[in-house]
Amino acid sequence: MFRNSQILCKATTDISGDIPESAGELSQYEKVIETLTTLFPVWVILGAIIGIYKPTAVTWLEKDLFTLGLGFLMLCMGLTLTFEDFRRCLRNPWTVGVGFLAQYLIKPLLGFTIVMTLKLSAPLATGLILLSCCPGGQASNVATFLSKGNVALSVLLTTCSTIGAIIMTPLLTKLLAGQLVPVDAVGLALSTFQVVFVPTIVGVLANEFFPKFTTKIITVTPLIGVILSTLLCAISIGLVSDVIKAQGAQLVLPVVFLHAAAFALGYWVSRISFGESTSRTISIDFGMQSSALGFFLAQKHFKNPLVAVPSAVSVVCMALGGSALAVFWRNRPIPLDDKNDFKE
């Protein structure tokens, strides 16, 4: 998310190294955008409170408009990418590959283990498995920036897992949850393709062929993403607020376990091969899911409303967990001799 604003700030410096007067205003403007964006956890908490105690204030947004909002969120991510980003994936096969495998091998198995250990009911189990099979969320880019991780790597990990979700999310959900409830893998794949792949590719193409246009709006896309994420969070919580208030801890604890274990495993497993900065990045990307996508798929393809609850709860849990971890790491400097695992 922040990569583009950093590049733009550099671009405002003239050849002599001095910053033009006009850049001062732009820098201040970007500083405000950055501040509002880094307060993402605060906005999510406020959205969750509104969703629980005043659900009618946000649930007016119909399912089709929710889909539109999620698609626009993916478009915002696409606008920050170019084809060069995908070539960078090829230059970093091991680093990106480990992040991808963690997202679609370790995380789903972790979700399945929690389901079996806690003996959750079929709909809640299905919802938690679906959540664990979703790609990394855009909010991980913000948390990585705050934790002094590698933002460029975070963007690549999020991009790869998002594109991979078209196949991996429906396939893994079918394999792990198909024994609990009927799972329409083809329907899940089509929905993921429509709401994830199409808007992301449209954003990439716009950035590639209309760079002047995208440069003008790129500084505000992170804030737009935060606003949309907060709105989707409030709507998700609002639609299942009665269930959350009635069952409470039974719904929250499995999701907390999933995210806490993912953050811890992502970091310590990465430390076996990677340096501190890369390990922080993989940990945050591994622990923060695209909960809005999970909620969208649960609402559209499963009749029982309980299937959507884990994804709704996850929006708040991953925002709080990711931001807390980012603040913890922000106060711990990266070692000067840290291993460089990423090729630009």
Task: Provide a brief overview of the structure.
Belongs to the bile acid:sodium symporter (BASS) (TC 2.A.28) family. By secondary structure, this protein is mainly α. It is built from 17 helices and no strands.
Structure description:
GO terms for molecular function: pyruvate transmembrane transporter activity. The protein has 17 helices and no strands. It is mainly α and 344 residues long. The protein has one domain: Na+/H+ antiporter like fold. Helix 6 (93-118) packs across helix 9. Mean pLDDT is 81; it is low at 1-24.
Q: Give average pLDDT, whole number.
A: 81
| Percent of residues in helices | over 70%
- Stretches where pLDDT falls below 50 for ≥5 residues? 1-24
Order of helices and strands: HHHHHHHHHHHHHHHHH
Strand-residue proportion = under 5%
CATH topology: Na+/H+ antiporter like fold
Q: How would you sum up the major sheet? A: none
The CATH class name reads Mainly Alpha
Shape: globular
Total discrete domains: 1
Count of DSSP-assigned helices: 17
Key attributes of the depicted protein:
344 residues, mainly alpha, Na+/H+ antiporter like fold, 17 helices, 77% helix, globular, disordered N terminus, membrane, Bilac:Na_transpt
Draw up the topology in text:
Blueprint: H1 3-11, H2 21-38, H3 40-53, H4 63-79, H5 83-91, H6 93-118, H7 122-132, H8 139-146, H9 151-177, H10 185-209, H11 211-217, H12 221-239, H13 241-247, H14 249-270, H15 276-287, H16 291-301, H17 309-330
Helix pairs in contact: 3-12, 3-17, 4-10, 4-12, 4-16, 6-7, 6-9, 6-14, 6-15, 7-9, 7-17, 8-9, 8-15, 8-17, 9-10, 9-15, 10-11, 14-15, 14-17, 16-17
Protein name: Sodium-dependent transporter yocS
Membrane topology: Multi-pass membrane protein
Keywords: Chloroplast, Membrane, Plastid, Transit peptide, Transmembrane, Transmembrane helix, Transport
